[in-house]
């Protein structure tokens, strides 16, 4: 999910609010202000109201606050991510970020006092004082946020969901620092981008590519294995370690057992997203077998999503692979802003995010137009498109074409970032262009994986995203050995490379767009030649 036009940070609250004034701000008659963009787009046009949410239904919400300093955070991230800047790689620690850009304790207290006065239970206040969890009954939430929660039925899919009828409101002093209240609707379910497909024999069981083919095709040196590096996976389903063990043993990878961190109680019982999680883990093991992988499992909900991303940032793990998303048009603008703020905080702390661009070509929303997937379209995320890789019998790159399902196009939310203007296309209309890079995603052949007790070939940009996250881990290992900073938010450096170290993919289409020389809407800069790209980035 995602979306967002970055909004200018509102005026800051005073560091301390006298008790009398704070109390007055919480009175029912106090002036209230709406949280802009915090209502589903086209709700009444695309769904029919079927009733009211039961007053006693308990609902969890995650309240996002705007960072302090207005555009100062954007400026800071631009400097530490620009390889031509003297500040490049001088990232903030978690505590340094909180001190510089987090909300004050007094502001957090004012918010908590208000929520409790409305009967809500306040949960975790996350690192940086920019995200506060709470829960309560539907009736309490309606009172606290000045809106009505109704049940709805989607006109296209028939799916039933609940949502707030209007934008939530808060006392003006509090609303001035709140950017989103996630959890007031449960319409959007993030989908994973894995595409199963069994094909004629290649070297791997199930018909897909092997670790040797992937590493050979992308010129991954045996010297670098990801040893000592950490990679996070954002997941909304679980996995079975026995499947991972079978994969690792078959190829003799000797990979560390993945760790699991459950967020907000985890993702629940195993579902059809299991193949996604196991694909992500096994692709990381294939290319960076010695890296330590942590799987962050959260609920597939708006509040679960933002909380899970925040947990990843709080962990400090430098590289994250993301294979779940939804069309920009399916999300609230405020929800996109909230997730974007977490990515931006991660970038300030030297963290890089790699997200699958989607498996529906240039029409991610499926409405016959052109649209892109979020979070791949976020300016602080490296969007990863799809290709079809061909390797020789000796596992050397032979050719690569754009995969027809690879997501790509222009964002409808984010303006084009400065580091992308050098490749700005007229079709982009001045908006963020997707993807940034690409890797093997075609399902015929896909990647050979072991899941749910059997071998199969699986493709999709869910394979491409961890292929790039694995490269980032290998790069960070090499950079550490050279005494240099990790890759962090990679886009400014990748675009600064101007195509050096990439396989430029010039044929194929994803629907509305065709591949061409240099950057394009189907494959971005292309796939990586690990050895040459790492050398270029290291200078």
UniProtKB/TrEMBL annotation:
Its cofactor is Ca(2+). Residues 208-539 form the Peptidase S53 domain. Gene3D superfamilies: Peptidase S8/S53 domain (3.40.50.200). Residues 1-22 form the signal peptide. It holds the Pfam family Pro-kuma_activ. Keywords: Calcium, Hydrolase, Metal-binding, Protease, Serine protease, Signal, Zymogen. This is Peptidase S8.
């Amino acid at each position: 999910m995602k979306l967002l036009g970055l909004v200018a940070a509102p005026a800051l609250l005073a560091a301390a609010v006298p008790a009398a004034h704070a109390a007055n701000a919480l009175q029912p008659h106090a002036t209230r202000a709406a949280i802009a963009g915090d209502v589903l787009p086209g709700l009444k046009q695309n769904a029919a109201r079927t009733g009211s949410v039961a007053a006693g239904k308990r609902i969890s919400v995650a309240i996002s606050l705007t960072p302090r300093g207005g555009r100062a955070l954007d400026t800071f991230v631009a400097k530490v991510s620009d390889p031509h800047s003297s500040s490049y790689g001088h990232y903030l620690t978690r505590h340094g970020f909180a001190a510089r850009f987090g909300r004050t304790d007094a502001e957090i207290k004012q918010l908590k006092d208000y929520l409790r006065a409305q009967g809500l239970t306040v949960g975790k206040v996350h690192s940086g004082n920019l995200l506060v969890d709470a829960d309560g009954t539907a009736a309490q939430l309606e009172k606290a946020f000045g809106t009505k929660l109704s049940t709805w039925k989607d006109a296209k899919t028939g799916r039933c969901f609940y949502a707030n009828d209007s934008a939530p409101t808060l006392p003006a002093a509090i609303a001035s620092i709140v950017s989103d209240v996630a959890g007031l609707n449960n319409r959007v379910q993030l989908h994973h981008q894995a595409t199963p497909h069994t094909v004629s024999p290649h070297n791997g069981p199930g018909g897909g590519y092997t670790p040797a083919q992937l590493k050979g095709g992308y010129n991954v040196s045996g010297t670098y294995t990801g040893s000592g590096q950490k990679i996070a996976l954002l997941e909304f389903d679980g996995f079975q370690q026995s499947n991972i063990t079978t994969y690792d043993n078959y190829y003799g990878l000797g990979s560390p057992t993945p760790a699991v961190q459950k967020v907000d109680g985890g993702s629940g019982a195993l579902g059809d997203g299991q193949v996604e999680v196991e694909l992500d883990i096994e692709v990381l093991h294939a290319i960076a077998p010695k890296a330590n992988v942590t799987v962050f499992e959260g609920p597939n909900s708006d509040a679960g999503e933002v909380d899970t991303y925040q947990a990843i940032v709080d962990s400090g793990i430098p590289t994250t692979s993301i294979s779940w998303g939804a069309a920009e048009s399916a999300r609230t603008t405020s929800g996109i802003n909230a997730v974007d703020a977490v990515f931006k905080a991660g970038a300030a702390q030297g963290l890089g995010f790699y997200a699958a661009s989607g498996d529906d070509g240039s029409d991610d929303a499926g409405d016959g137009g052109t649209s892109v997937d979020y979070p791949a379209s976020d300016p602080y995320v490296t969007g990863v498109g799809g290709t079809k890789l061909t390797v020789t019998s000796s596992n050397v790159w032979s050719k690569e074409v754009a995969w027809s399902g690879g997501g790509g196009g222009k964002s409808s939310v984010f303006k084009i970032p400065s580091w992308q203007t050098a490749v700005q296309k007229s079709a982009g209309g001045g908006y963020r262009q997707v993807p940034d890079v690409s890797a093997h995603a075609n399902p015929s052949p896909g990647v050979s994986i072991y899941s749910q007790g059997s071998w199969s070939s699986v493709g999709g940009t869910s394979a491409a995203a961890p292929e790039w996250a694995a490269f980032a881990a290998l790069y960070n290992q090499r950079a550490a050995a050279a005494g240099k900073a990790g890759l962090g938010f990679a886009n400014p450096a990748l675009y600064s490379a101007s195509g050096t170290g990439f396989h430029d993919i010039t044929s194929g289409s994803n629907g509305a767009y065709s591949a061409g020389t240099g950057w394009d809407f189907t494959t971005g800069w292309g796939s990586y030649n690990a050895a040459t790209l790492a050398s270029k980035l290291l200078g």
